[in-house]
Amino acid sequence: MLKSSTIADEQAWQNLIPDMEAWNQVRNACGKNPHAFLGMHHGPGGKGILVRVFDPEAQSVTLLIGDERYEMTSFYKDGLFQIWFPDAEKHFNYKLERNYDRGTFISEDPYHFLPALGDMDVYLFNQGEHHRVYDVMGAHIRHYNDQTGVDFAVWAPNAERVSVVGTFNCWDGRRHQMRLLGSSGIWEIFIPGVAPGDLYKFEIRTKAGNFLLKTDPYARQMELRPGTASVVVSDRKFVWHDAEWMENRKKRPALNSPMNIYEVHLGSWGGPGCPAADYSRPDGLPNYRQLALALADYVKKMNYTHVELLPICEHPLDESWGYQVTGFFAPTSRYGTQEDFAYFIDCLHQNGIGVILDWVPAHFPKDFFSLGRFDGTALYEHEDPRQGEQKDWGTYVFNFGRNEVRNFLIGSALYWLKEFHADGLRVDAVASMLYLDYSRKEGEWIPNQYGGNENLEAISFLKRLNELAHGEQPGCVMIAEESTAWPGVSRPVYLGGLGFTFKWNMGWMHDSLEYFEEDPLYRSYHHGKVTFSLTYAFSENFILPLSHDEVVHGKRSLVSKMPGPYEQKFANLRALYSLMTAHPGKKLLFMGGEFAQMIEWNCRQALDWNLLDFPIHKGMQTMVRDLNKFYLDQPALWEQDCIPAGFQWIDGSDYRQSVLSFCRWDKARKAPVLVILNFTPQVYENFCVGVPAAGVWREAFNSDRQEYGGTGLLNEMPLPAREGKCHGQDQFVSLRLPWLGAVMLVLEHAGAGERAGKEE
């Protein structure tokens, strides 16, 4: 049994406080190292052991050592309790019993623990190279001997003081003040007894004396809107069942594999008539687990290869669709927990479906509770609005030149790829990152050190991001939404590129939609819009997107963009989808497009699944399903997507008739697909088209089938190639070409001229 010394009077009590400045910093909650004063220390002159506790709400505090109880002394009314063991020679384990009006609580002393971050963690973080930074920053359940609690760490280098506040300490910033780890800018504390589900924030006292309440930048779960607190999550590891998928992904080169992406906004995908209509939550939102089963079943039936989710990182405003992120490590609580989200991806993987996440490193919102002016200074953003603000979106721009900011963003990307097995990230608004003068007038931006408009720091960040993603997660894809002619976006970093796997082909999207919006009578004057994309189709590794951005803000739905009467609108849309499928490049279609949603997408309104009660909409869905299946079955449509050898013009200059014909080649050049597209309401009987191989051709796809809502103008008989010059080929076939439609032929039986047209 230890013997404590009786503190008889206030003077004796004060003698145990040799550093009044340190005490005043703790009392006024304005210091950087409360651990140097609180907790267990050697007594005066190095004699004995002294324990100090600061708790301004406690009525009394008792120190517990095994079964022994020692009442701590307090003379002041400001919450300082002390006890001295003059004969103790070594530090010992103890607990604290704190008595409050509302009850008694027993826990270990938060100021009795060493930092959880090691020197190497701190070094790598400050260098911007901690590839598992999410394991040391934020809030993490830790187990020390028989005590469980949470380690908290946050980067706030310019703060005067940082505290953890939450449901476990009445949101009182005086009670769990953090220590600053050297010059790293990282504040840290371990708080025993904090458990999963507890809410917390960081209370930051700025150098100007202001107080800020901030959510944890590294939080893994956030309170459901409109709440903004961070949530402590369990340290329980999710048990994955997708080992086969992950192993096969490493062996499957993305460039010459099929990729047909279904873009989804989770909150509005379901609705009456949808497989995920049975929502059990009072707010009507689906759960990740419900969505996993329903979406996996639907996507499999529709023959898509991947799902791409609009941003699921936590965001406070539904109408931002997730593009104004406040939780870069937290799947939104709208649809469940992080374990629920892991289940979602695991379920899709087990069903053979890849999952791509939309990720937003270009900017972040100015919400007072989030990253903006985090420690009272421009920490994650630039101070100068000419560098630090994106006026188009009313947001801040990340300071990509700051190591800790780069580490934060790269850590977020790797977190989703590693911990959630995401198959790729679609990086939003890359153009706004590359150019310092993006959407800015003269005088509103600052040139780089060479006088140019290139954001050198952002370029360096993107290259490093892609190097690490591809290096540490083999088989993942990194996709750039980049709308300019920046060279080498999807070329490797070692060849001078940015290192992305793919780039969205925004030029194809805009040109194609503008062409299809033209009345067919005038399309001959705009023929270049539908052929121009082939002049640069292999300059990058492209994805052809018909995305959410094209069906909002007055742009109308895809089918509503199409000209002509009702039936022509649908025929035009079938032709557009056929063009996208046959054109070099991977594919992406936003939800609702597959059954010709009539109205614009609204994030607060479910898709109009009831349209499937109408035959023409059901027919569109059936066509998309069959077209997707045809795509998967034909290596010629994806095996050589990114190189010129996979494409051959037959006739791209027939502007008078608005007809295109070309051939797609597989790698072995034995199973070509011949594509003929008619963009007018004119039906052509006995239409002659040159073919690159002799033999018998067969119609494998026709967008005008009656079950698709068409008129049934088909080529049901085999089409033998006949000798004769046509479109520069030595043989041709004669077929029926439907109005506003697509015909795709495959070589059924190769003849003597099988290799005609092959490169020598």
Task: Give an overview of the whole structure.
This protein is α+β, with helices and mostly antiparallel strands and 760 residues long. Helix content is 21%, strand content 25%. It has an 8-stranded parallel β-barrel with strand order 16-17-20-23-24-25-26-27, surrounded by 4 helices. The protein has a 6-stranded antiparallel beta sheet with strand order 28-29-30-36-32-33. A hairpin with a 2-residue loop joins strand 34 (722-726) and strand 35. Helix 9 (403-419) packs parallel to helix 11 (456-472). The longest helix is centred in the last third of the chain and has 19 residues, at 615-633. It is elongated and about 115 Å long.
Write the layout of secondary structure elements.
Layout lengths: L9 H6 L4 H8 L11 E4 L6 E6 L5 E6 L2 E4 L8 E6 L9 E6 L2 E5 L11 H9 L10 E7 L2 E9 L5 E6 L12 E2 L5 E7 L6 E7 L5 E4 L15 E2 L11 H9 L8 E5 L1 H4 L18 H14 L4 E4 L3 E2 L12 E5 L6 H13 L3 E6 L25 H4 E2 L4 E2 L6 H17 L4 E4 L2 H5 L21 H17 L4 E4 L21 E3 L1 H12 L10 H4 L10 E5 L11 H4 L4 H17 L3 E5 L24 H19 L13 E8 L4 E6 L8 E6 L5 E8 L3 E8 L16 E2 L1 E5 L2 E9 L3 E10 L10
Parallel strand pairs: 16-17, 16-27, 17-20, 20-23, 23-24, 24-25, 25-26, 26-27
Antiparallel strand pairs: 1-2, 2-5, 3-4, 3-6, 6-7, 8-9, 9-12, 10-13, 11-12, 13-14, 13-15, 18-19, 21-22, 28-29, 29-30, 30-36, 31-35, 32-33, 32-36, 34-35
Helix pairs in contact: 6-7, 9-11, 15-16
